[in-house]
Write a structure and sequence with these properties.
about 350 residues, 7-stranded antiparallel beta sheet, 6-stranded antiparallel beta sheet, 13 strands, about 20% strand, elongated
Length: about 350
């Protein structure tokens, strides 16, 4: 078995902030400079820049919209599928060997391992429909040939590592099923009528800033629905609970907005979206309220109505949300609205939002 070293971005707790929706991205290659496959909302110590973090995806499902330049794993021949898995295994093995060499000071040894791996991938991918893979590898090999003998080995190692990471991700995306747009122009991104619908989601509550609120997705077998429920506490200046989906690998640029199906408790909730400014701590939010009823209601929220926020406060100078940049969805209940004002429907105590589907519409 190939050992995996998972990287983690440092997450700071802002005790004075009214709400925190931290972004820890999927599959970064650098410790202290990216993220781990799927964040659990925990805090990490700051770590020096090391070679580590070979991809081991932690979440169970992801959803990929078909693009004109993307080949899906289901479309590949048996030979191509086998080659894709062999290339991924080769990358995992190269990083498992090369990363320790780099971290122990043997940068030349790391470069040698990564270089040999790139050349092997180049040979394996030729003649197959791995266009993105071949482009990235060919570009790297040509750049290496043009380098002078005295070039910076450390920079070369990082360049190779980034290419290997990108190739791995390109192949990983082929494994994800397509989003099939229905006759009404709707696609179900998350089906909450099955227990599996809640699996890619994880809680992120005000405990990250010293609060004591709780919230999570649970499947109600009796009703056949997934429920976002918990309790809001004023302890530690808290006041929000949220859940976050896994990373969306899709290109959602063809969609105009999100549709929530379910029933509420009279409270105002938020749909949260991580978009193009994720490195700056920007979260796009939109308020919604589902009626208090046992039947199912539908509410549509256009992406154009989402507001850019930072720790719950409006950041009007940020650009509007673009659907093609969306990488994660979230649900939140907070004492602030999507514009950073006081939420008139907010109160401490138990909350319950019943969900059936989270759809996208064109």
């Amino acid at each position: 078995q190939v050992p995996f070293a998972l990287s983690a971005a440092p997450v700071r707790a802002f005790r004075s902030a009214p709400e925190c929706f931290v972004s820890v991205s999927a599959g970064s290659s650098r410790v202290g400079g990216g993220g781990v496959g799927l964040s659990t909302g925990q805090r990490f110590p700051r770590m020096k820049r090391l070679h580590g973090g070979c991809r081991k995806h932690l979440h169970g499902r992801s959803f990929t919209a078909r693009s004109s330049e993307q080949t899906e794993m289901s479309d590949l021949t048996a030979e191509e599928r086998d080659t894709a898995m062999k290339i991924q295994a080769l990358i995992q093995n190269a990083i498992a060997i090369g990363a320790p060499k780099f971290n122990e000071g043997d940068i030349a040894g790391c470069v040698e391992v990564y270089g040999e791996t790139c050349q092997r991938i180049q040979g394996m991918a030729k003649g197959l429909r791995f266009f993105s893979v071949l482009y990235q590898i060919d570009k790297l090999v040509m750049a290496i040939k043009r380098e002078s003998p005295g070039s910076d080995l450390s920079q070369r190692a990082w360049g190779m590592r980034r290419t290997l990471d990108n190739v791995y991700n390109s192949l990983e995306k082929m494994k994800s099923p397509s989003l099939k747009i229905g006759p009404e122009g709707i696609v179900t991104l998350f089906n909450f009528k099955t227990e599996a619908g809640s699996l890619p989601w994880y809680p992120l509550n005000d405990v990250v800033m010293g609060g004591a609120s709780s919230g999570a997705l649970e499947f109600d077998e009796e009703k056949g629905r997934t429920v976002f429920e918990g309790s809001l506490s004023s302890a530690g200046n808290g006041g929000f609970a949220s859940v976050r989906s896994g990373t969306i690998k899709s290109d959602l640029s063809s969609f105009s907005g999100v549709e929530v199906e379910g029933s509420g408790d009279g409270r105002t909730y938020k749909i949260c979206v991580i978009g193009p400014a994720r490195q700056m701590g920007i979260v796009y939010q939109a308020d919604f309220t589902l009626p208090v009823d046992s039947s199912t209601a539908k509410i549509r929220i256009p992406f154009s109505s989402f507001n850019p926020t930072s720790f719950g406060r409006l950041v009007p100078e940020m650009p509007k949300l673009t659907a093609g940049s969306i990488s994660q969805f979230g649900l939140m209940i907070s004492k602030l609205t999507d514009r950073g004002d006081t939420n008139p429907n907010f109160k401490f105590g138990n909350f319950r939002l019943e969900l059936e589907r989270l759809n996208l519409y064109v």
